[in-house]
User: What shape does this take?
Amino acid sequence: MKDSYALGPTEMPLLSETIGENLEHTTARFPDHDALIVRHQGIRCTYQEFDDATDRLAKAFLQLGVALGDRVGIWSPNNAEWVAVQYATAKIGAILVNINPAYRTSELEYVLNQSGCRFLISAPSYLTSDYRAMVAEVADRTPGLERTIFLDSPEWNDLFDAGDAVPDEELWQRESLLTADQPINIQYTSGTTGFPKGATLTHRNILNNGFFCGETLGYTERDRVCIPVPFYHCFGMVIGNLACTTHGAAMVVPSPGFDAGAVLEAVEAESCTSLYGVPTMFIATLEHDDLAKRDVSTLRTGVMAGAPCPIEIMKRVITTLHMSEVTIAYGMTELSPVATQTLRDDSVDRRVSTVGTAHPHVEIKIVDPDTGETTPAGTPGEFCARGYSVMKGYWNDPDRTAEAIDADGWMHSGDLAVMDADGYVKIVGRLKDMIIRGGENVYPREIEEYLFTHPDIVDAQVIGVPDERFGEQIMAWVQKRDGADLTEDDVVEYCKGRIAHFKVPRYVRFTTEFPMTVTGKIQKFKLKERAVEELGLARTSGD
Assistant: This one.
């Protein structure tokens, strides 16, 4: 029987240049094409204007004394300044530290100290967060942070003038010291326990991942990509920005944070051809009142990723949003991030039931979590990947790096997956999410996919809760369509006789929203905590 192993296509070579070099090459080819359009700021610039602006900012950083390998933090929602800092730091070999806009003081203090940030570029505030006050609060506890520049301050505007005073030769000299394998980015992964880990990524990691995502989507200089996903995460800055700038496509930013109405407005106004989002974003867009009023017929492709993609939602994206060539991507920050992706010409069945095949130049395999042996095709196990996209490691954390990347270079994802004989992968859950009910292994994703077929269910999340007799029982948290007359018993009856009896939820609860991270990943551990409290259940020893 065939093993669960595959190597992505290798016909097209990897890019061996830096991000700055690649941007220069794109600018030379498409100087007058739109590069960056930020709808909420009224900003629009061509590739030549964007390249020039990031050169000025790069020289300003040199004037500030930013050395090769220095860490520069950015704490802001999506805006033009975020993109400028991304490319300017890359041009001088500084390491950009992405700081989650939702962080509070303890998390901010931790990442500034753990990464060793010398400089911080920050928005003054966002939503309920007063960034100025929080930076001031942690100032005495972050001794390595030498300077913070807020985006609304005269200091920020003065930076560009300072950059003009630096000779171009100084920037060229710095660029001559850069190599593709130098670290360029630290992204902190949000764990459910312990402090976040700083995945350290290189030019080669993220430039190539963005490039091959764009290739898979068929991008050219004629594409206009709506990017409502956050820049602080790989989805925004790699699959979004770098996929565009490696192809001369336009980056279209609809709003500071996700807003379904702003997405629809941007798609229509800018004739966007591609749209990104996590499933919850696509659900909100499909349910928005403005959908019927907006012309979204220019859309053809896009990426749904960041969380398991419900089959029924994917079908509506293809039909209602005209995204006939939409793809599903799967990966993790530590893999820069995409490891598998469906193809634009894959059958609808493949695109709604799998996360695709191995990305170019990436090896993937499914292993038995207990033995480490590669499983036969069709047998669940842990998803692992190896290749150019594997991070350099967790910043200053060799122990946790060694736990994640084995001696042979394989990154262990912690995700449960199945690979078929043709190399297509289906994610069936997290190792820690798998439910063991009376000795039966139950993968929540299977039940969730089934629940999505109910016309009155908008979203569903399945968890295991403690049970004295079976060890664990199945519980479904359900978000029902507005106005739907759906009861808990209705949900259970919908499952009986249609899925295995041990997969039928023992408990059903309705909710209007799910606890989630900024990137739209639903936090099942919080659902479990809530369930244990509401149901009055005893916690298992593993909780």
Notes: The first strand starts at residue 5 and ends at 7. Residues 124 and 133 are 9 Å apart (CA to CA).
